[in-house]
Design goal:
Radius of gyration: 19 Å
Structural class: alpha/beta
Strand order of the largest sheet: 2-1-3-4-5
Distance between the termini: 30 Å
Helix content: 40-55%
Oligomer: single chain
Number of strands: 7
Largest sheet: 5 strands, parallel
Number of helices: 6
Length: 217
Amino acid sequence: LPRRALATCIAAASALLLAATAHAQATQGVSKGEILIATIQDLSGPVAAYGKAARNGLQLRVDEINEQGGVHGRKIRLLVEDNAYDPKRAVLATQKLVNQDKVFAILSHIGTPMNNASMPVQFEKNVINFMPLSAGREMYEPVHKLKFASVASYFDTMRMNVAKLYKEKGAKNACTLYQDDDYGLEVVRGAEAGLKDIGVAMGEKTTYKRGATDFSS
Protein backbone atom coordinates (compact mmCIF):
# COMPACT_ATOMS: atom_id res chain seq x y z
CA LEU A 1 0.00 0.00 0.00
CA PRO A 2 1.52 3.39 -0.95
CA ARG A 3 2.98 5.31 1.97
CA ARG A 4 1.11 8.45 0.92
CA ALA A 5 -2.22 6.61 1.07
CA LEU A 6 -1.44 5.28 4.53
CA ALA A 7 -0.38 8.71 5.71
CA THR A 8 -3.62 10.18 4.39
CA CYS A 9 -5.60 7.46 6.10
CA ILE A 10 -3.96 8.03 9.48
CA ALA A 11 -4.09 11.81 9.15
CA ALA A 12 -7.81 11.70 8.47
CA ALA A 13 -8.29 9.24 11.31
CA SER A 14 -6.47 11.65 13.58
CA ALA A 15 -9.10 14.28 12.83
CA LEU A 16 -11.74 11.83 14.03
CA LEU A 17 -9.67 11.08 17.09
CA LEU A 18 -9.38 14.77 17.89
CA ALA A 19 -13.15 15.02 17.89
CA ALA A 20 -13.41 11.95 20.08
CA THR A 21 -11.09 13.32 22.75
CA ALA A 22 -13.67 15.92 23.68
CA HIS A 23 -15.92 13.07 24.82
CA ALA A 24 -13.29 10.63 26.02
CA GLN A 25 -15.20 9.37 29.02
CA ALA A 26 -18.15 8.35 26.84
CA THR A 27 -16.22 7.14 23.80
CA GLN A 28 -15.15 3.52 23.48
CA GLY A 29 -11.44 3.14 22.90
CA VAL A 30 -10.49 6.64 24.08
CA SER A 31 -9.02 7.03 27.55
CA LYS A 32 -7.04 9.74 29.33
CA GLY A 33 -3.73 8.61 27.88
CA GLU A 34 -4.54 6.37 24.92
CA ILE A 35 -6.58 5.98 21.74
CA LEU A 36 -7.11 2.37 20.75
CA ILE A 37 -7.58 1.60 17.06
CA ALA A 38 -7.34 -1.61 15.05
CA THR A 39 -6.81 -3.06 11.62
CA ILE A 40 -7.86 -6.43 10.20
CA GLN A 41 -5.58 -7.75 7.46
CA ASP A 42 -4.90 -10.94 5.59
CA LEU A 43 -1.72 -12.16 7.27
CA SER A 44 -1.95 -15.85 6.38
CA GLY A 45 -4.23 -16.17 3.33
CA PRO A 46 -4.02 -15.60 -0.43
CA VAL A 47 -3.21 -11.88 -0.28
CA ALA A 48 -1.00 -12.00 2.81
CA ALA A 49 1.83 -10.10 1.12
CA TYR A 50 -0.50 -7.15 0.61
CA GLY A 51 -1.98 -7.45 4.10
CA LYS A 52 1.42 -7.53 5.79
CA ALA A 53 2.56 -4.46 3.87
CA ALA A 54 -0.60 -2.59 4.90
CA ARG A 55 -0.12 -3.58 8.54
CA ASN A 56 3.52 -2.45 8.49
CA GLY A 57 2.65 0.87 6.88
CA LEU A 58 -0.08 1.60 9.41
CA GLN A 59 2.21 0.75 12.32
CA LEU A 60 4.95 2.96 10.91
CA ARG A 61 2.61 5.96 10.74
CA VAL A 62 1.22 5.30 14.22
CA ASP A 63 4.78 5.20 15.58
CA GLU A 64 5.56 8.50 13.87
CA ILE A 65 2.49 10.17 15.36
CA ASN A 66 3.33 8.87 18.83
CA GLU A 67 6.92 10.12 18.53
CA GLN A 68 5.45 13.55 17.83
CA GLY A 69 3.41 13.47 21.04
CA GLY A 70 0.29 11.63 19.93
CA VAL A 71 -3.12 13.27 19.65
CA HIS A 72 -3.76 15.84 22.40
CA GLY A 73 -1.24 13.99 24.55
CA ARG A 74 -2.85 10.62 23.95
CA LYS A 75 -0.73 7.90 22.38
CA ILE A 76 -2.29 5.75 19.65
CA ARG A 77 -2.17 1.98 20.04
CA LEU A 78 -2.82 -0.21 17.00
CA LEU A 79 -4.21 -3.72 17.40
CA VAL A 80 -3.89 -6.15 14.49
CA GLU A 81 -6.03 -9.18 13.65
CA ASP A 82 -5.76 -11.72 10.83
CA ASN A 83 -8.82 -12.54 8.72
CA ALA A 84 -6.93 -14.87 6.32
CA TYR A 85 -9.13 -13.28 3.62
CA ASP A 86 -12.14 -15.16 4.96
CA PRO A 87 -15.43 -13.46 5.93
CA LYS A 88 -16.02 -15.82 8.88
CA ARG A 89 -12.58 -15.09 10.29
CA ALA A 90 -13.24 -11.39 9.70
CA VAL A 91 -16.43 -11.47 11.79
CA LEU A 92 -14.67 -13.29 14.63
CA ALA A 93 -11.85 -10.74 14.57
CA THR A 94 -14.31 -7.85 14.54
CA GLN A 95 -16.30 -9.28 17.45
CA LYS A 96 -13.09 -9.56 19.48
CA LEU A 97 -11.95 -6.04 18.67
CA VAL A 98 -15.33 -4.42 19.24
CA ASN A 99 -16.62 -6.35 22.25
CA GLN A 100 -13.48 -7.50 24.05
CA ASP A 101 -10.77 -4.98 23.17
CA LYS A 102 -13.30 -2.14 22.78
CA VAL A 103 -11.54 -0.24 20.00
CA PHE A 104 -12.54 3.23 18.83
CA ALA A 105 -12.24 2.51 15.10
CA ILE A 106 -11.21 -0.19 12.63
CA LEU A 107 -8.95 1.11 9.87
CA SER A 108 -8.07 -0.29 6.44
CA HIS A 109 -9.86 -3.62 6.87
CA ILE A 110 -8.96 -5.66 3.78
CA GLY A 111 -11.52 -7.26 1.47
CA THR A 112 -15.03 -6.49 0.27
CA PRO A 113 -16.74 -9.65 1.61
CA MET A 114 -14.91 -9.24 4.91
CA ASN A 115 -16.05 -5.65 5.39
CA ASN A 116 -19.61 -6.46 4.39
CA ALA A 117 -19.73 -9.22 7.00
CA SER A 118 -18.07 -7.14 9.72
CA MET A 119 -19.67 -3.71 9.47
CA PRO A 120 -22.96 -4.70 11.18
CA VAL A 121 -20.95 -5.91 14.19
CA GLN A 122 -19.07 -2.62 14.33
CA PHE A 123 -22.03 -0.34 13.86
CA GLU A 124 -23.98 -2.01 16.65
CA LYS A 125 -21.31 -0.67 19.03
CA ASN A 126 -20.79 2.66 17.23
CA VAL A 127 -17.31 1.68 15.97
CA ILE A 128 -16.11 3.48 12.84
CA ASN A 129 -15.15 1.62 9.66
CA PHE A 130 -12.42 3.87 8.29
CA MET A 131 -10.97 3.74 4.77
CA PRO A 132 -11.22 -0.02 4.21
CA LEU A 133 -8.96 -1.67 1.65
CA SER A 134 -11.92 -2.25 -0.63
CA ALA A 135 -13.58 -0.25 -3.37
CA GLY A 136 -16.94 -1.97 -3.10
CA ARG A 137 -19.87 0.43 -3.22
CA GLU A 138 -21.02 -0.99 0.11
CA MET A 139 -18.09 0.82 1.74
CA TYR A 140 -20.11 4.04 1.41
CA GLU A 141 -23.59 2.97 0.25
CA PRO A 142 -26.03 3.26 1.81
CA VAL A 143 -24.70 6.36 3.49
CA HIS A 144 -23.92 5.76 7.16
CA LYS A 145 -22.34 8.05 9.74
CA LEU A 146 -19.74 5.39 10.58
CA LYS A 147 -18.65 4.64 7.00
CA PHE A 148 -15.58 6.46 5.66
CA ALA A 149 -14.28 5.38 2.24
CA SER A 150 -11.59 6.98 0.09
CA VAL A 151 -11.50 5.50 -3.42
CA ALA A 152 -13.68 5.27 -6.52
CA SER A 153 -15.75 2.09 -6.62
CA TYR A 154 -14.84 -1.03 -8.56
CA PHE A 155 -18.17 -0.66 -10.33
CA ASP A 156 -17.55 2.86 -11.59
CA THR A 157 -13.91 2.16 -12.48
CA MET A 158 -14.80 -0.92 -14.51
CA ARG A 159 -17.81 0.73 -16.13
CA MET A 160 -15.68 3.56 -17.45
CA ASN A 161 -12.53 1.68 -18.41
CA VAL A 162 -13.95 -1.51 -19.91
CA ALA A 163 -16.03 0.46 -22.42
CA LYS A 164 -13.03 2.64 -23.29
CA LEU A 165 -10.70 -0.35 -23.68
CA TYR A 166 -13.22 -2.29 -25.78
CA LYS A 167 -13.56 0.55 -28.27
CA GLU A 168 -9.85 1.42 -28.37
CA LYS A 169 -8.84 -2.19 -29.10
CA GLY A 170 -11.60 -2.77 -31.63
CA ALA A 171 -12.66 -5.85 -29.67
CA LYS A 172 -15.20 -8.28 -31.09
CA ASN A 173 -16.15 -10.07 -27.87
CA ALA A 174 -15.74 -9.56 -24.13
CA CYS A 175 -15.46 -12.37 -21.60
CA THR A 176 -14.71 -12.43 -17.89
CA LEU A 177 -13.01 -14.60 -15.30
CA TYR A 178 -13.90 -13.20 -11.89
CA GLN A 179 -13.60 -14.03 -8.21
CA ASP A 180 -16.69 -15.77 -6.86
CA ASP A 181 -17.59 -13.35 -4.05
CA ASP A 182 -18.82 -9.81 -3.39
CA TYR A 183 -15.62 -8.33 -4.76
CA GLY A 184 -15.77 -10.24 -8.04
CA LEU A 185 -19.46 -9.50 -8.50
CA GLU A 186 -18.86 -5.77 -8.18
CA VAL A 187 -16.12 -5.95 -10.79
CA VAL A 188 -18.14 -7.94 -13.32
CA ARG A 189 -21.28 -5.86 -12.78
CA GLY A 190 -19.28 -2.73 -13.55
CA ALA A 191 -17.84 -4.33 -16.67
CA GLU A 192 -21.29 -5.40 -17.85
CA ALA A 193 -22.66 -1.91 -17.27
CA GLY A 194 -19.81 -0.38 -19.27
CA LEU A 195 -20.40 -2.74 -22.17
CA LYS A 196 -24.13 -2.05 -22.08
CA ASP A 197 -23.39 1.66 -22.34
CA ILE A 198 -21.83 1.03 -25.77
CA GLY A 199 -24.42 -1.52 -26.87
CA VAL A 200 -22.34 -4.66 -26.22
CA ALA A 201 -23.31 -7.74 -24.23
CA MET A 202 -20.86 -9.73 -22.11
CA GLY A 203 -19.88 -13.04 -23.71
CA GLU A 204 -18.68 -16.00 -21.67
CA LYS A 205 -18.44 -15.71 -17.89
CA THR A 206 -16.72 -18.02 -15.44
CA THR A 207 -15.48 -17.76 -11.86
CA TYR A 208 -12.73 -18.87 -9.51
CA LYS A 209 -12.66 -19.21 -5.74
CA ARG A 210 -10.72 -16.94 -3.38
CA GLY A 211 -7.15 -18.13 -3.14
CA ALA A 212 -7.37 -20.31 -6.28
CA THR A 213 -4.19 -21.24 -8.12
CA ASP A 214 -5.79 -23.41 -10.81
CA PHE A 215 -7.37 -21.22 -13.48
CA SER A 216 -8.23 -23.96 -15.96
CA SER A 217 -11.76 -22.53 -16.19
